[in-house]
């Protein structure tokens, strides 16, 4: 993909100083395909002809705010996003919803308010959870994270979820059996510490997300967009929150 990018940054009016700093950093990258960066507040013409929309956490719950109030606020904001995406964006737009709060809900509300957009083009992103699990497993097996594939995350991205390793595989693992780069083995057959697998893995996985930085989140978004635009046909399983049929 060698198309030039026009990056539009959207936030509330009191965050414009922060967005200005982001624009300067983006320009400092000297990225050859970055044509222009602009910042916006909510207006009727946002998402105009957008090909990709990335929705991040748009509000942080206040200390004294009850969950019901926060959900109501999030629902209202995402309903506006969905309606404006439906009105202004390219009809093949790809919408990626990421963040650390109510990601599934946000994707659902946006999709519900954008009926003319392909519902499978609006996805909630659990890729960071998936990569965090791969990193833990790779550490346990003393290998690199990229060698662990086909880990699946089910459920609510920011709530109750399930880590599924039944189809997971490991590649280029140093042991008595060795093969070419395409050779893999079932992951569960290679983890001999069943106690760790049963009792510790999920706990460590849930604790790991408490130490996140923006770097891994940005990488996950970029990775999913890369797969999406390049029509990846590697056969690797990727977890995404998508509207069911």
TrEMBL record:
Molecular function via GO: malate dehydrogenase activity; oxidoreductase activity, acting on the CH-OH group of donors, NAD or NADP as acceptor
Keyword Oxidoreductase: yes
UniProt keyword Protein biosynthesis present: no
Source organism of this protein record: Pelobates cultripes
Family matches, as PANTHER family: MALATE DEHYDROGENASE
UniProt record, GO biological process: malate metabolic process
Keywords: Oxidoreductase
Family per record: Belongs to the LDH/MDH superfamily. MDH type 2 family.
Protein name per UniProt: Malate dehydrogenase 1B
